[in-house]
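FW: tagging you since you asked about this chain on Friday. Here's the raw sequence from the shared folder, copied in full. Didn't touch anything.
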Amino acid sequence: MGNIINNLLDNLISTAWRMMELPFNLLFIFMVIALVLFNWLGRRWLKKLSNQKRLYINAALILMLLLYVADKKFAFISTEMNALNENVRNVRMKIRTVAFHTPIDLSKFNKEFPKAKLFKRSINEAIQLLTVIQQQPNSVVYIARVDLTHPKIKIEISPQKREKYLTSAFAKKHGAILAINGEAGETPAPNCELGKWSGNWVRNGNPVMMVDTELRPFIGFNKHNVAKYYEEKFVDTEYKDDYYNAIWGRFDILKKNKIIFPRQYRRDFPYARTVMGLDQDGSELLLMVVDGKRPWYSVGLTYEDCAKMLRSFGAYDAMACDQGGSSCMYVEDMGGIINRPADWDGVERPVYSHFGISFR
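HL: got it, structure written out here
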């Protein structure tokens, strides 16, 4: 009996899903037919009600049917768009291949994420872009590997705290070919405070903000782009040449190759993320952006999986940065923002600080 019911439900669901391929006007006709059938089959019961009550019932049914069909139709369109976006993404990722300074040892990655698909694309000889796609649950991840030893690499960081603006605008203004979001503060509001999400912020030897605490990690770059990771418990609010450029994060998630769970959180759940990592000698920078908040496309990654994935690609330390709707990655030669930010199905969120790489 259970199998019969399950088969019946499967067939009904399959039929309903196939109906979503029909134009909306035909779906509306089917709704009218369904309403007529309801009135005919329930005519004995409906005759007992007043004309006004019957009108209310039919109006409510029409509204519910319209909302249901619209919801399913939009979900169907979203699925089609996801498939199209994946095809476009795959084509974009295969445009160019240039030898990168350090090949990836995929054994660790394949062991940690055996069902994931990995795509590689060279931005230039110093920057390589990786795209990781997983299913059940869905996740789409972008990771840029940056060779900090390349002589043409230049670190770009927002020069001052001003009204929030877009990462893409920052990249274009400062000639960054690659950029990610920094910090948006306590809320998405345009003039909110940074509040507890404050840390060390330096651009080209000019401190914008030096308010490090034992809660905030940061990454410092000297004039030669040699980078060093400074974990949460390390506190320094005085400028040094090792912080010629510096940007802060929210939490440690990988310290000395060990995964760290943010102490402020009771549980780890998949979400849209921005993460910055370094290899052990500070010569390679890894910038990660994870799409999230859309189960049919990408639900996101947990902090643990972010740390595992970056570690499998060579990271030794990593910090989680502002996340959710703020998370975005800009790549100039791929047309701008390459991920799908979580705000309003892809609308980029303004933030106070930004981090980028120019190539000169």
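FW: Residues 2-88 form one domain.
HL: agreed, and Residues 30 and 274 are 45 Å apart (CA to CA).
FW: great, closing this out.
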